[in-house]
Amino acid sequence: MSDNSRRKFIKQLGSAAALMGAGPLGSLAATPEKAYLLQADKPVSSNDKIRIAGIGMGIMGFGDVSCALKVPGVELVAVADLYTGHLEKAKSVYGQHIFTTRDYREVLERKDVDAVIIATPDHWHDTQAIAAMEKGKHVYCEKPMVQQIEEGHAVIETQRRTGKVLQVGSQRVSSVALAEARKRYLAGDIGQLNLVEAKIDRHSALGAWQYSIPPDASPKTIDFDAFLKDTPKVPFDPVRFFRWRNYQAYGTGVPGDLFVHLITGLHFMIGSKGPERIFSSGNLVQWKDGRDVPDLMTAIFDYPETKDHAAFQMTLRVNFADGGGGSEFTRLIGTEGVLELGWNDFKIKQHKLPVAPGYGGWDTYNTFTKAQQEEFVKQYNAKYSAADRAEVKTEESAFRAPEGYDDRYDHFVNFFESIRSGKPVVEDATFGLRAAGPALAVNESYFKKKVINWDAERMKIV
């Protein structure tokens, strides 16, 4: 971006962001040259009341339902969960009047339920989402949208046929920060994208899915057979029930829990439909607790050139055995800058190459004779103007959402607005499979030890 264009952008920024005094911004680099506080959307006006039900009231279930109820005009009427304790907890949090059941199908039969929030283990997502839409319910489904790639096509077809709204719950795509990052990317602030690198490293039991198990967990309080669905039958095991992410039968491991967030955000920002080649490698390093998925995983994605972006490579990594205590970043690296994403903040560092290549330093110039050096400098100065030879100054800008901003709230606002007005959701079933498919292909590559070729248009392994 030229200096003139940059000045014009800053002058026009008022409607999108407020200029702040430069200074530290939490996780952002200290003392950036320019800092911007992004503005959240205006308050939502409620028209028709939307009555919701929660299916699966674990960590994400309670979080999603509580967030959804902050949106004006939304009311909770029912919840379903296979653990009695979750149903009792729901009544204590949301009121004794709500209907509770272990059988989600009873929720779908209720005439007073307009939409459901599905936050069950991954292997239940497609079945419950399809059943809900068939019963006339709108669906908010946690990520990844499906556990198996082929299930995604059935979800897409059901959404198309029924006309029901389906929003996938990877809320980052509704963030005001990601929307602004997309604008900055499309404006060319980092030049041509050539590499994306991201990592999410952790070093804690809870971060490695070692979730707490309630003392009353038993065959009496948990419908374990229903939980198993069509997976191999095993004796009652509360560890499998509450720590389901650790098992291939019920979850999707690191790719489905974490990579899918990164892929979703990237696809939203650059308008990509997906990679063409995927390869992954990993290991089970520390958490040898009976799980059959790795706790360390690295994946490489090759994205082809399209009308929306140049060819680039993406590398994603998760390490649950990081003795340094854990850290994370997501960087989009271009030929003229780097865009580093936080969750609801980001920064851009720009460093453009000068027209003149320079000489000296670690260079063959120093091996020339004095006469050749003088002749080289003469020719160099004749070829490149003073402007061409000028040292490039690195520029940094930092953007963040307001304190207390919640992108999940905006994601639910988008979902409920779509139900009321027909406005498209930001993450429908097709978008959901374009994000989930490559993540699931990472598992395919890991367990089969081979490169996976992916058809991003048809969303299939080839």
TrEMBL record:
Signal peptide positions (record): 1-29
This protein's record includes keyword Signal: yes
Q: Which Pfam families match?
A: GFO_IDH_MocA
What InterPro entries has UniProt attached to this entry? Gfo/Idh/MocA-like_OxRdtase_N (IPR000683), Gfo/Idh/MocA_oxidrdct_glycsds (IPR050463), NAD(P)-bd_dom_sf (IPR036291), TAT_signal (IPR006311), TAT_signal_bac_arc (IPR019546)
- Could you tell me the keywords of this UniProt record? Signal
Q: Look up the domain of life of the source.
A: Bacteria
| Domain Gfo/Idh/MocA-like oxidoreductase N-terminal as annotated: residue spans | 50-169
Gene Ontology MF terms in the entry: nucleotide binding
The record's listing under Gene3D superfamilies reads: Dihydrodipicolinate Reductase, domain 2, NAD(P)-binding Rossmann-like Domain
PANTHER family xrefs: BCDNA.GH03377, OXIDOREDUCTASE FAMILY PROTEIN
Alphabetized NCBIfam families for the sequence: TAT_signal_seq
What is this protein's record name?
A: Gfo/Idh/MocA-like oxidoreductase N-terminal domain-containing protein
